[in-house]
Each structure stands twice: as structure tokens, then as C-alpha cells.
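Rotation project, supervised by the postdoc (A.L.). Task for the rotation student: set up a whole-complex structure prediction and record inputs and outputs verbatim in this book. Inputs entered:
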Amino acid sequence: MQVNLVNENSVIIYFSDIVCAETTDKITHACQLFRSELSDTLSDIVPSYTSILLSCNLRKTGLQNFVINIRRILNELDNVGLTNLARNKIVLPVYYGQEVALDHRDVSLHTGLAFSEIVKLHTEECYRVFAIGFTPGFAFLGNTPKEMTIPRKASPRLNVPKGSVAIADRQTAIYPSQSPGGWQVIGRTPVDLLDDSEECLSKFAMGDEVHFESIDKQTFLAMGGQL
Amino acid sequence: MALDIIQAGPLSLLQDLGRYGYQDVGVTPGGAMDTHAFHWANQLLNNPANAAQIEITMGPFKACFKQSTSFSLCGADVVVSLNGNTITTWSSWQAKAGDILEIGYPKQGLRSYLAVSGGFTSPKTFGSISTVIRNKLGGLSKKGSKLANGDILPFIAQVQPHSRKVPQQFIPEYKDIINIGVLTTYQFHQFSEEAKKTFFNELYTVTPEIDRMGYRLKGKPIEFAEQSFVSEGIALGAIQIPANGQPIILMRDRQTIGGYPKMGCVCNRDLNILAQATPGTQIRFFEQDLYEAEAELHQEQHYFFKGNGDGND
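Outputs recorded:
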């Protein structure tokens, strides 16, 4: 682990060079410790694939003290290890019908697999939240099975519909709100992933376990899905 | 008990010092682009440091006070008048019910901060009033919309007996060539000596592609060999070098994570200067000591938050 200064009130910690579930577990665990132990000196925390960016409130602490506390917590993490890490499990219903799987043709052409095969692969895998960003609540989930690897679209869509489930490289994600985007769309979830009435805002957190479950059109519509 | 917006101009936004604690779910902190001007506008009125103001980008802007109040205007060098009488910026004034405030197009600088005594009192979303159009958060609508003609901004009317002015030494001059201090952090050590030399010796120009998210610069390209890079958290002021070698400086509404290599970060003090820079402004970068910059920011926060411990914790 490497602790680097970034700006007047920020520090970045690099945990590994490798994007994998083990790195994600370490980062998720570290985030929990930072949140509880740094309490009001911490103003923001940004976990990602292999790193955590932490910002402090300079009215509560100085940068040097902040770094000392971070190093102490990282030592604790090393000593305690990764036992007893509770993991949030999310099952997300997805309608994979052709009218919402906007890129089903391209995905089949590129992978050489029938779309039903893509759906099977996509729903069989258990994913982890590797990072959250791009737009509020946009979770980068990995890894997708090798066979369905596909690059981003050469030119991004101006408007990807809300709830679109998409793939790119070895990752999958859901667009929580309508936005521009370059991922290959293979389905749509009727579940609202953003909740601006609650303090949590996003359904996902770093490290969560995510499964997709195929639903038919009727169920999708009954759950409030929009075509 | 309100300010009626007659002419909102191209981009006027309700802002405070930002929305903290939600970057882990992808929500940008946002907040006033030029915190130096923002802090002084509140300070002149003895407002809490985080009291919401209107950030007026460019102008023109016109509004009517529906109630007597004190107000202040800091930031860009603009012609401003109250009922047709010219008044100075970086000052506070009293307005009577029915008074019309008019702010013109900036002669220098880009953003003006209009504060009223006590601050504008719109409801907060996730702890802040800051408007982030891209995230559809904050502002009068709570859905991230910019201010429009006819909007009515509530405040609690309080009149301060005296007009005040910011001491001259704290009023910045917005020049055509600016020096910007860089904290050489992030991937700085991974850039070649040649790339570092280019970065610090060449002049870079502010392009028309500037917004609250980022400032795109143009100049001699900075080379970086390694192209694939794992996305990581982006700090305020981060200087990204994309494949074309032209720097992008990440501002208040930046995305929370990204995968470009970074030369380091612009120090907080000079981000405020940059936030007032218009296209064509030339930039010379210099190395800024991190702990000196931290001490300066700490001192500034201590000064402006003193005695009104509210804020953006």
C-alpha cells in the first residue's frame, strides 16, 4: 500500500495494481474503517478499482495529522485481515427483450454468440461493484465472462434510456438515469436505482455483490418498467 | 421577502460551498467556482460562510428586490447599478423594496457573486443548495436547473446599517497572463523530464471549452508514454493529460473518478483565479509547495469560518 499526497486536503492510497475482487474487498474494508475512525475530519472518500482518495476538513485537522491517522488505520487493517466482512447482496431484475436491448445485434455479431446465450452468460455470473462514478449511482460491475467481451461503441449514444443494462470490455453497468453513454445496451431494469428522498441516494455501494435475473415483458411492465 | 429575477443571463446558479460526502456514489461536490469572491461576499454581510449566493457567469443580469435588505457583489469586474446609479463591486450596499439591480457583461473576469444578508433560503438537497446541472441536483428546483427569468428567490430580510468594502489588497486583478501554482502530486513522477520541462516552460492558453466541470487548455502537447490507466478518484484542481497532450484542469463540478494520467493539482488559491479566466487567457505554471499551500488554505478557512461554525462538513 502506498499513501500519496494529492492536494492541500487530499490523499490517495494505492492498494494494488490489479483489478480484482480481492482488491475490492480490501478497499471496501478500508473505507468502513476510515469512515468510522476518521469521523468528522473526513470530508469525502472516493473508492475506485485499486485506490481510495480521501479528503479532510482543514477546519478539523491538518494534512500531516490526517496522513498519520490514515497510516495508523491501514496498519490496523493489515493486522485484522479480511475476516467478517459483511457484503451487501443485490438481485436486479432485467428484461432482455429486443426492444430494450438496443445493441443485441452488434453484441451477437461481435461475440459470435446467439443473444439468448449472452443473456445466459450475463445472468449466471456474480458481479462485484468495482467502482462508482461517471454519473450518480453508476456502478462499474465486474467481471463479465470472457466470451462476451466487447469494446465500447465507436460513437456514444446521446441518450441512453434510464435503467439500461449495458456491457463494455469485461464490465457491466446500469444507467441510473438517462444520459449520454457508449456502452453496449443489452436490457433494461424496472428498478429505480436513485432515490433522492433518502440519504443513501444510490442502491449500490463499493464492494456489493450483484446478480441479474431475467424477467419477461409482463413482469417488467408490472414492476413499472418503461419501454 | 424575495429577489425577483428579471433577466437571469446565460448561466446564473444558486451556489454554496458544495455538497460533501457523496462522491463515493458519484455525486460531484460542486459549489462556488471562485471561493475567494464567494467568501468575501458573505463576509461583507456577516453571513455564515456557507450562506447561499447567486453565481452569475458573464451576465447581463437584472433583478428586483421585493424587500429591503443588504446585499454584496464580489468577483468579476462588471458595471453594476442600483436603480440606475453605478455602485462598486467588492462592496455591500442597502436596497429598498422595489430597487432594481443591474449587472453588465464583465470587462475582466467571468463570474460575479451576489449575496444577500442571511443568504438565499432555498431548501437543501443532500446537504447543499449548490446547483449541479449535470447531476440534476440542487438549486431552486432541487433538480439542478439554472435560474430563469421570473424565478423568485426567497431570503429573510435583514438590513445592515453600514456599507462595507473589501480591503484593496484582497481584490484580485484578472490579467491576460496568469501564473498558476501546481502541486506536483498524482502521476507527476511518471512523466518524462522532457514532458515536465514542456509543462513548466511553455505558455498554455485557455480555450473556449471551459465550464464548471473542467478547463481545457491548448499549447505544446505534453507526452505520456503509458496509455492505459486504472480510473481513480479525481481531486479538485487535478491536471489531466489525455492522449492529445492538452491539459484539462478539473474544477468544482468534475466527475468523481477518471482514468487519465495527472500532472498534479492546481493549488486552491490559483483555482479561484483560473475560475475567473476567460478564453484566450495565457497560463504559466509554476511549482507550488504543498505544505505552504495547505497553510494558506487553512488560514483562509480559519478567517472566513471564524465565529460562524456552520458549513459544509
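Student's summary: Residues 38 and 69 of chain A are 8 Å apart (CA to CA).
Supervisor addendum: The mean pLDDT of chain A is 93.
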